[in-house]
Amino acid sequence: MMLPEHKAAINELDRISKKKIKPDLDTDAIEEIERVIASSLEERTEVTLTVFDPFEELQVVGIVERVDVLQHRIMVDGEWFRMSDIIGAGA
Description:
Blueprint (H helix, E strand, L loop, with lengths): L3 H14 L9 H17 L2 E6 L6 E11 L4 E4 L2 E4 L3 E5 L1
Antiparallel strand pairs: 1-2, 1-5, 2-3, 3-4
């Protein structure tokens, strides 16, 4: 028999062990992401962004509505995402 506290601790250790490390993007990948974002903003086309999360795979699909250059973030379908969290983009 296992105590609830032990089970919670085991689940937390399992979650932490699956934590991913954010990949470093080269300049070509960054330029491609910027190109796709600019194209979506100008032409109002749908874009698929891969957003880094240490515990799960996040895909954001929508149209880029705004770009905030000062705070380095973009708005997709009413939600803000930091540019530094975007690790992939496709049209």
